Structure formats: structure tokens, C-alpha cells
């Protein structure tokens, strides 16, 4: 199969399947997919007719979870269409077959074939895994994709996951995340002392060094905890998803962030299952996951910019952390990285690869994107 021809012919069949909509929420942004480019001048090509493979795929998200869950549903529909029905995905939202954070082990053991989640959830297995999500003050979505695809990222990730009988593909990106919702305004570093904040991952470890008490809560308990003052602050993702959680009603200060500037989501396969797929099937999954990886990023951007307008109309107070908080955060990140590198040579190795790429990227961004964004 000519890969280029395959790519050109694939868009027509999938053009309508992206409009999956399982969530009737008044805050949702309507997208007109009919305006997307189509290649209707090409004849449909059917591949693998007759040979059907079903992928049992569990996610860490509830059914029809906006953007992330829907992105996986769109991936499944696209793969079905592009393969002429020969590659089916049997989708299991969180807790239906496997608990949200047991998908890694369930795929590793072969109970299921694949999962969609985020690599930083598995840092307890290997602290280096958190780095495949990204780091505070690190890559934005474009930069991490360039490190993953053209740098050493995917290669390192696949090497480390292979020990768990897993094979990861890029499965989306949340795009830049917001710093979170605070009940009280942060005017100094001292205001961070003793603050109880729901924040996971390396961001939580950085916050801990600033005197914050980072806590982990199931998604369903965050709003009530914030409302009752059990916690003082929470981060989540960005405007598009945060508005649905209602945090603005109980914590009016919404901060710009640096802890998750472009977090990667993963589509990870059981390696033995992946290895047994035909080359054609691997190519089709690869194409569809690349599309999911890109489209999820763009959709976060699209919905975030429209939702920000709504949040402002609701009286949300937009803030930036005081400079001393940000500077202390950067210093704390250095300490967290040094400690984890000393404990785990693999963390050190992955971090070194990131640091090299990031240094070059920052230098270029300074004379290009940063300049442009500042004057735009
Ligand atoms: Ca987050």
C-alpha cells in the first residue's frame, strides 16, 4: 500500500465520524466538521478485507469524557473507517472493566490489549515515566512532540516501557495547562505556606518545596473539598475542562501556570499484541493515533479560547503568580530533578535528553515565537 495514497484517501471516509458527541453540556463549543478538508476526488481503497482484529482498549477517563475521552472515541471510529472495518476497538471507559489507574498493569499483563491515559500516573513504577508527560517549566505541546517524534523521546519511552511488555504511541496533549483555582489571592511566596492544593506529578513535588501541602483527590471529590475549604486550591487542566468542574463558583482566582505546559497523553499497547499485528495494521493505528495526538491538542486550544470568554463573563479573576513564587518554583524544580536523578539513573538519562532539547528550543523560541507573541 502506497502510504501517501492511503493518507489521501483516508480523510473522506472519516470526515463525519469525528463529530461524536456523547455529552450534552451547555458549555460545549460547537465545531462544524463539514468545513474540514476532504479528498473526495479519490476512490475509496479497502484493505485487509475479511481479516478482523479487535483491540480491547481501556481508558482512565469516564465514558464520553470531553476532549480526551471523545478523542479516543474518534480514534476508534477513524480506525474502523480507515481499515474498512478490519480493525475494531472495543472501548472500556474507566472502571468498566479496569479501574482508572490499573490500566497500565492490565495492559502489561495482557488482560486488555491497550490503554489511553497519562504517563505521569505511573511514576511509582519508575520516576522516569513522569518525564514522558513533560516537566514544569519544560516543553510546550509542540516542543514535546518534536522531542518525542524527531528527538530521543519515543525511543527512550519505548525502551523503558518494553520492560513492562508495553509499546507506547502518542495519544494527545492537553496543551498548556492553567496554574489552578485559588480561594484566596496569592500575593507573595509566604501566601503559599501551608496551602492545601490538589496537584499531582512533578508539579506537586515542586509545590511541596514551596511550602504547599500537595494532596491527591479523586476527580469527584475536588469540588466539594474546595467548597468546604478542606483544600485551598486545585489545578485541573485548562478553561475547557475546568469550567465543567465548577471551580470558579468556589475559588475565584484563576492563575496562569507553569507546572504542566504541554502534558502528553498516551495510547499504549501490550507489546506482544502489537508485535503480532501486521505491518499494515500497525501503519493504520499509527496514522490514526498521530491524528488523535494532533487533533486533541488543537481541540484543547479551540475550546480553551472560547471558554475563557465565558469564564470572564462569570467574573473569574485572572492572575499570575508573583515573580518570587515562580522563581522559587524554578529553583525547587532543580532540587527535585537532582534528587530523582541521584535515586534513579533512568530518570537522569531521560532528563538529560530533555534538557538538551529544551535548551536549544528555548534559544530558538526567544528569537522567534516569544518575540512574536510579545509584539502581536
Ligand atoms: Ca493538570
Largest sheet: 6 strands, mixed
Question: Mean pLDDT, as a whole number?
Answer: 90
In CATH, the homologous superfamily of the largest domain goes by the name Bacterial extracellular solute-binding protein, family 7
Give the number of helices: 13
How would you describe the shape? globular
Which structural class do you get from the secondary structure elements?
alpha/beta
Corresponding CATH architecture of the largest domain: 3-Layer(aba) Sandwich
Q: Kindly provide the name of the CATH class of the largest domain.
A: Alpha Beta
Order of helices and strands: HEHEHEHHEEEHEHEHEEHHEHHH
Number of strands: 11
Contiguous uncertain segments of 5+ residues: 1-25, 36-47
Q: Which cofactors or ions or other ligands sit in this model?
A: calcium ion
Share of helical residues = 40-55%
The number of domains is 2
CATH topology of the largest domain: D-Maltodextrin-Binding Protein, domain 2
What is the radius of gyration computed over CA atoms, rounded to a whole number of angstroms? 21 Å
User: Which sequence of strands runs across the widest sheet?
Assistant: 7-6-8-5-9-11
Distance between the termini: 45 Å
Beta-strand proportion: 5-15%
List the helices and strands and how they pair.
Layout: H1 3-14, E1 53-59, H2 68-82, E2 87-92, H3 103-109, E3 114-117, H4 141-149, H5 153-162, E4 166-173, E5 180-182, E6 196-198, H6 201-209, E7 213-215, H7 219-227, E8 233-234, H8 239-245, E9 253-255, E10 264-270, H9 271-276, H10 279-313, E11 317-319, H11 323-343, H12 345-367, H13 369-375
Parallel strand pairs: 1-2, 1-3, 6-7, 6-8, 9-11
Antiparallel strand pairs: 3-10, 4-10, 5-8, 5-9
Helix pairs in contact: 1-2, 2-10, 6-11, 8-10, 11-12, 12-13
The structure holds calcium ion.
Amino acid at each position: 500500500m502506497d502510504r501517501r495514497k492511503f493518507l489521501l484517501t483516508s480523510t473522506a471516509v472519516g470526515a463525519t465520524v469525528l463529530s461524536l458527541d456523547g455529552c450534552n453540556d451547555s458549555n460545549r463549543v460547537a465545531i462544524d466538521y463539514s468545513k474540514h478538508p476532504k479528498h473526495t476526488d479519490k476512490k475509496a481503497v479497502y484493505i485487509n478485507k475479511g481479516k478482523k482484529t479487535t483491540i480491547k482498549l481501556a481508558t482512565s477517563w469516564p465514558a464520553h469524557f470531553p476532549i480526551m475521552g471523545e478523542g479516543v472515541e474518534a480514534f476508534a471510529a477513524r480506525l474502523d473507517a480507515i481499515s474498512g472495518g478490519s480493525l475494531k476497538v472495543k472501548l472500556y471507559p474507566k472502571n468498566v472493566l479496569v479501574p482508572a489507574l490499573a490500566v497500565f498493569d492490565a495492559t502489561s499483563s495482557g488482560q486488555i490489549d491497550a490503554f489511553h491515559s497519562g504517563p505521569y500516573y505511573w511514576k511509582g513504577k519508575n520516576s522516569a515515566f513522569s518525564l514522558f508527560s513533560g516537566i514544569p517549566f519544560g516543553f510546550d505541546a509542540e516542543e514535546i512532540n518534536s522531542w518525542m517524534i524527531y528527538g530521543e523521546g519515543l525511543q527512550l519511552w519505548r525502551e523503558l516501557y518494553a520492560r513492562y511488555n508495553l509499546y507506547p504511541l502518542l495519544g494527545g496533549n492537553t496543551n498548556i495547562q492553567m496554574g489552578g483555582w485559588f480561594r484566596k489571592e496569592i500575593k507573595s511566596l509566604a501566601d503559599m505556606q501551608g496551602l492545601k492544593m490538589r496537584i499531582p506529578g512533578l508539579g506537586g513535588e515542586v509545590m511541596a518545596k514551596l511550602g504547599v501541602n500537595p494532596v491527591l483527590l479523586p476527580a469527584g471529590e475536588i469540588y466539594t473539598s474546595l467548597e468546604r475549604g478542606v483544600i485551598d486550591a486545585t489545578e485541573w487542566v485548562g478553561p475547557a475542562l475546568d469550567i465543567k468542574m465548577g471551580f470558579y463558583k468556589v475559588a475565584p482566582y484563576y492563575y496562569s501556570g507553569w507546572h504542566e505546559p504541554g502534558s502528553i497523553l498516551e495510547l499504549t499497547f501490550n507489546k506482544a499484541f502489537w508485535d503480532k499485528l501486521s505491518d499494515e495494521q500497525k501503519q493504520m493505528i499509527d496514522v490514526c493515533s498521530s491524528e488523535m495526538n494532533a487533533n486533541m491538542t488543537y481541540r484543547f486550544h479551540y475550546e480553551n479560547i472560547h471558554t475563557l470568554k465565558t469564564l470572564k463573563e462569570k467574573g473569574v479573576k485572572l492572575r499570575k503568580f508573583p515573580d518570587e513564587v515562580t522563581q522559587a518554583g524554578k529553583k525547587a524544580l532543580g532540587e527535585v530533578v537532582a534528587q530523582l536523578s541521584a535515586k534513579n539513573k533512568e530518570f537522569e538519562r531521560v532528563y538529560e535528553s530533555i534538557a538538551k532539547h529544551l535548551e536549544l528550543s528555548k534559544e530558538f523560541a526567544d528569537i522567534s515565537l516569544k518575540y512574536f507573541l510579545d509584539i502581536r
